[in-house]
Write a structure and sequence with these properties.
The protein is mostly beta strands. The protein folds into 3 domains: about 5-80, no CATH class; about 95-200, Trypsin-like serine proteases (Thrombin, subunit H); about 215-295, Thrombin, subunit H, CATH 2.40.10. The protein is about 10% helix and about 45% strand. It has 3 helices and 22 strands. The chain has an 8-stranded antiparallel beta sheet with strand order 8-7-11-12-14-10-9-22, covered by helices on one side. The longest helix has 11 residues, at about 10-20. The radius of gyration is 19 Å and the shape is globular. It starts with 7 loop residues before the first helix and ends with a strand. The model is unreliable at about 1-5 (pLDDT under 50).
């Protein structure tokens, strides 16, 4: 493949989609994506293959096979130290509850974030991350609380719904490295009076779905860090995340500046027009990873509730 048969963006995206293992198999590499090269702390206008590493080390301390080339197939690379990515306060009970608040299941003793409301045209569902509420493949029907158990949620008085749909996450093994696209789940609401389509602090539901754009300003509202602003650094990224000691690989991700902490997974990433572009899945001390929203909705066969 050569650059003259497609745009530079699609050329880099194809490298990330189909040749990511070339980078991920190198020591300390935890992700790759399309981005703008950063020089002296400032973004340039040069598109590059952005390579995320858990730790930068001198090239003379690496095996030759682990050295990241300055140029790969004609495209400049840019190495960013991100640390390791891990799956990640609006903690009080509120009715009707809304996007940004704490939720959790009775089987996973952690808190996640209520992202927003979605629908199949008949029923309303809460959209959130899979890893925050799904214990195993038998999770359908599991009760979901608002707030989560670590935030004081109790059964039965705080139950707002049950797990109805989720996309299983495929773990990396010694012999197989499957690529996930989404980490998401839908909770069917027991009563519509228990929930609001609004996102806390924004006072509107997501107005629709949009694509993530490089360098654009974005925001999210999550259970732990509440409303935070960030910038899109990379799109169509392939990233490695740790979840309770297991490693999972996700493709077609959006990478932003650091916006989240533990408990913020499930938050909705919004552009400045309040259109949903992503679902927060995890992060490190310096960057945040989000599923692409259009992929989330397609996988669950649901649509946003926009009013």
């Amino acid at each position: 493949m050569t650059c003259n048969c497609c745009t530079i963006d699609s050329y880099i995206c194809n490298i990330c989609d189909y040749e990511c293992d070339y980078f991920l198999n190198k020591k300390n590499v935890v992700g790759v994506g399309l981005g703008y090269k950063i020089k002296c702390g400032f973004e340039t206008s040069q598109k590059c293959i952005m390579v995320f590493v858990s730790q930068k080390v001198p090239s003379n301390s690496l095996n030759s096979n682990d050295i990241i080339p300055d140029v790969y197939k004609g495209i400049v690379t840019d190495v960013l130290e991100s640390g390791c990515f891990k799956t990640q306060s609006l903690t009080k009970k509120v009715r009707p509850t809304m996007g940004g608040y704490s939720i959790g299941s009775t089987t996973v003793g952690e808190a996640s974030t209520l992202g927003c409301l979605v629908t199949d045209g008949k029923y309303k569902y809460i959209l959130t991350s899979n890893h925050g509420i799904v214990k195993d493949e038998f999770a359908i029907g599991t009760k979901v609380l608002q707030p989560a158990i670590p935030d004081g949620g109790k059964v039965p008085q705080d139950v707002v719904g049950t797990i109805s749909k989720f996309i299983p996450v495929k773990n990396t093994t010694f012999f197989h490295e499957p690529k996930n696209v989404v980490d998401c789940a839908a909770v069917i609401v027991l009563q519509e009076s228990l929930v609001s389509p609004l996102i806390y602090g924004i006072n509107t539901p997501p107005l629709g779905v949009a694509n993530g754009e490089l360098k654009s300003t974005v925001h999210k509202v999550g259970r732990t860090t509440e409303k935070t602003l960030g910038k899109v650094l990379s799109i169509n990224a392939v990233m490695e995340l740790e979840d309770q000691g297991k490693k999972n690989i996700y493709k077609k991700q959006i990478v932003t500046t650091e916006m989240c902490s533990d408990g913020d997974s499930g938050s909705i990433l919004l552009n400045q027009g309040n259109y949903a572009i992503g679902l927060v899945v995890g992060g490190s001390d310096t960057y945040t990873i989000c599923n692409t929203m259009s992929n989330v909705l397609t996988a669950l066969n649901l649509k946003l509730v926009t009013r």
